[in-house]
């Protein structure tokens, strides 16, 4: 397996997800600029990934890039089945030896928390994909921002999957079972895809419910008039550049400038109608 091979394996458990699609587009663009070609290894389960690696063993791959991980021991499987192949993860990894290049999600969570707190929201919650003993980094940062203001997380919601419909169902269930006076008035979502489902649930529930919602990833839809979602945007171009520099050139940038991102402030963090420019949009937060 040579780093000079034009073929680079791209691992994803779901390329239909907006985040994976954006990352794949950027990876393909930058690989093309380096005269390399992507080979997609799509695997939703551990068994699928194991089979994909065995099939890839016949290819002269120059390395692996993980857009998402199909299982917790993915890095260990690569080390076992393709021991000479370098791998870089453009996603979180539980493997101690994994080379990970991800945005500073903790800082993103802190910024999103500060944005919601600046609006005077008193009861705040978070929605993440899966329940876990250790929350995702953006949720950890969000909780830290609340603690800094002597506030606690009032609700921890779990969608169960990174799908809008799952988030919709989780939010709707919460609205139905929680008394109006006890409901959160602001929600931070682990990803924009969850935020869209949560916003839609608030709109469909009606009954005067107003909940501010913010997300992470700045998906294309976030900018549209349907959502006007306030979200934290990672620099995908810098992340991919850093990952390829490590994978192909063994040249890491220890300054971590590639972890930067930017808070995109729109309307959804208000939680209710605000006079002015909101009059011109179809923001889902309005009823």
Automatic annotation (TrEMBL):
InterPro entries associated with the record: Peripla_BP/Lac1_sug-bd_dom, Peripla_BP_I
Signal peptide segment: none
Pfam families recorded: Peripla_BP_1
Entry annotated with the keyword Kinase: no
UniProt entry keywords in alphabetical sequence: DNA-binding, Transcription, Transcription regulation
Residue ranges of domain Periplasmic binding protein/LacI sugar binding in the record: 7-208
Name listed for the protein in its UniProt record: Substrate-binding domain-containing protein
């Amino acid at each position: 397996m040579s780093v000079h091979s034009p073929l680079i394996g791209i691992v994803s458990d779901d390329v239909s997800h907006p985040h994976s699609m954006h990352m794949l587009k950027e990876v393909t663009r930058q690989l093309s600029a380096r005269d390399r070609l992507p080979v997609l290894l799509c695997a939703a389960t551990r068994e699928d990934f194991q089979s994909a690696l065995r099939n890839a063993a016949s290819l002269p791959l120059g390395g692996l890039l993980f857009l998402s991980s199909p299982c917790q021991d993915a890095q260990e499987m690569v080390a076992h089945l393709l021991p000479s192949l370098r791998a870089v993860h453009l996603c979180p990894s539980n493997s101690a030896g994994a080379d990970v290049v991800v945005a500073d999600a903790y800082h993103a969570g802190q910024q999103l928390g500060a944005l919601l707190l600046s609006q005077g929201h008193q009861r705040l919650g978070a929605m993440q994909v899966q329940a876990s003993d250790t929350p995702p980094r953006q949720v950890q940062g969000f909780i830290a921002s609340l603690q800094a203001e002597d506030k606690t997380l009032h609700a921890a919601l779990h969608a169960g999957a990174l799908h809008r419909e799952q988030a919709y169902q989780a939010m709707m269930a919460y609205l139905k079972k929680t008394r109006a006076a006890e409901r959160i008035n602001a929600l931070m979502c682990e990803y924009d895809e969850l935020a869209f489902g949560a916003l839609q649930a608030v709109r469909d529930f009606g009954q005067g419910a107003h909940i501010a919602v913010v997300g992470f990833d700045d998906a294309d839809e976030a900018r549209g008039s349907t959502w006007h979602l306030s979200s934290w945007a990672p620099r995908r171009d810098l992340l991919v550049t850093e990952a390829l520099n490590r994978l192909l050139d063994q040249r890491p940038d220890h300054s971590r400038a590639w972890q930067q991102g930017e808070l995109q402030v729109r309307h959804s963090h208000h939680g209710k109608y605000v006079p002015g420019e909101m009059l011109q949009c179809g923001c889902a937060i309005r009823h």
